[in-house]
Amino acid sequence: MTGERALVVGYGSIGRRHVAILQEMGFGVGVLSQHASGLSIPVFTELNLALDQWRPDYIVVANSTAEHPATIEALNVARFSGRCLVEKPLAASVEDLSNAPSYRLFVGYGLRFHPVVQRAQEILEGCVLYSIASYVGQYLPDWRPGADYRKCYSAQAKAGGGVLRDLSHELDYLRLLAGDWKRLTALGGTFGGLEISSDDVFDLLWEAEHCPSVSCHMNYLDRNPRRDCSIHYEGGSLFLDLWGATLWQNGEQYNFEIERNEMFRRMHVAVLSDQTDRLARWEDGVAVMRMIEASNDSVERKEWIWQKTD
Question: Which of 2, 30, 76, 287 qualifies as a cystine partner to 42, CB 3.0-4.6 A?
């Protein structure tokens, strides 16, 4: 990757992580941000100026979720022809999105590169699935040490925050394992004592193309962080501990080594080497957004939502 230039749009916690990883990978890195200052790398406040002066081969969109659609469209208008990775989720609303851009765009669902998820996918290939139950929870004030959680985009509904969007990694990897949803119901809202305007708890239950029962619980409240999944299939059972990087299959334990930045690196390598089979594409990002919106509709209407078919 040495000699190539990357532009990271946004310099919050996730933007800073991308900058550090890309630098480690040998990229020249510039930043587009209204708030970054005192950096030893190029900083731009206007996208067109960054494109003209920095001429990036690769762009990572890591600003707030609500700003993603405008950035995606601005790159299209500017006739950007390189590769782009957009942090999840793709947008705050499907209605905010235009058509797929002309450049190569992928969505940053990094759990696709977790070795436990990859091994589970290999085991389940061709198997009949019976049920899947996943859980993810972590206390929001602990997410970004040293920062006021109440001021981060996660806490703000208008910025596209909320547990349902923030932790949509789960929805993406469950789609990978079980296929798209057919019908769905959900319960969620702001239930805890956090000082936020976004949702902090969501429970989803759906019927998928390849599994009759899939459920997911997600929250901002758990002070004992968890990210796991239990799967029953013809021939056995799996338990995936994603934070512990451990998989149990029918009582046998298998340990893997992975650290968070490695999943980001694998995503970047996949995008830039055209090894795109495992990456989430535009269509995947839109499908997750439709699932998020169906979940919100279910909460509002208190009923099952059926997947629309053309």
Answer: 30
